[in-house]
Amino acid sequence: MRIAISARSLDYPSGGPKEYLLGLVRALLDLGGNELILYYPHKSHLGTFPEVTETVLPVRNRLAFDWLALPSALRGSRPDVIFFPSSNMPPNIPCPAVTAMLDLGYFHPTLRMYKRADTLYMRRAIRYSARRAERLVAISEHTRADVLRLTEARPERVSVTPLACDPAFRCPASREALDAFRREHDLERDFILYAGNISPRKNLNTLLAAFAVAGDRLPCDLAVTGGYAWSEDFAATVARLGLSGRVKRLGHVAPAAMPLLYQCARALAFPSLFEGFGLPVLEAQASRTPVVCARATSLPEVAGDGALLVDPTDVAAWAEALVRIATDETLREALIRKGLANEAGYTWERTARLTLDALTAAAGIRRR
């Protein structure tokens, strides 16, 4: 089967969509038996997957790439099916299509997640994709339920293909490497990690308030990764709560260094109000780092029994959970053990096989 893949999300500096594409394509290549054709928006991506047919469509504007360049290229290459990994597909695609649904945060009525123009465009694009694609693959049961609730997708055409984390997170680093990482990033004191971007849906105000409530009972700093969207709101909250000396802003951390960051952390705190999957939970579990996360959207599904679950908006409950996960060794050992067992059930091989099932079904529909 000749499988085309829109690889425009390689242009993203980091984040879930890019990690999803990279992990899935590697796993599809490991399975073998199919020809992959990847379409890149820039020549800098050439060599990312030297085993496949790499085609550059030199258009950085996403609408021009999706609506003009890609359909034209597909008419020339005539693949059996095309895969769109970022929640939408454009019109005029001349072959069967499978679209991955990452999350439906664009439809959330209150949380500020995306720019207004993006929100309006993606609501229409997701609904169009749900009608037009031969198959949809949702990255969690929660996302599948959202797809069925918010679009006209037919249930029998929407399957679930859970994500997995990079195997690098399962490899323990040496004490020397961990100590060097701590020195480089000024993390000499124990810290609880938040891994993700800073935005309202990530619910960091609750986490900061819980740190303030816990006070001296919590012998840890807070280390925060991610970009600087909504950065002024975050900085103002840190200052107002008197936490300026306890919050470490790490900014963007290179993917190769993320396993070191997790392994250095005392725990992962993930208070997000809305996630399509919640990959940091699995990354922490694979790294033998205890997890406390919100009891919200897809997170309980992904975390299994390998995390301490907390009401996402209960500051007092978060304060108690942070103290427990930092100081209760019995709880920590249990969460590490259960987290490892839970994470082992998520593999990119499984994701690739489930995705291939959807691609094969999609290609067969058009041929019949």
From TrEMBL:
UniProtKB keywords: Transferase
Xref: InterPro entries: Glyco_trans_1, Glyco_trans_4-like_N
Lineage: Bacteria, Pseudomonadati, Thermodesulfobacteriota, Desulfovibrionia, Desulfovibrionales
Transferase as UniProt keyword: yes
SUPFAM superfamilies cross-referenced by the UniProt entry: UDP-Glycosyltransferase/glycogen phosphorylase
Gene Ontology MF terms in the entry: glycosyltransferase activity
GO BP field: lipopolysaccharide biosynthetic process
Protein name in the entry: Glycosyl transferase group 1
Domain Glycosyl transferase family per the UniProt entry, residue ranges: 182-339
Annotated ranges, domain Glycosyltransferase subfamily 4-like N-terminal: 15-168
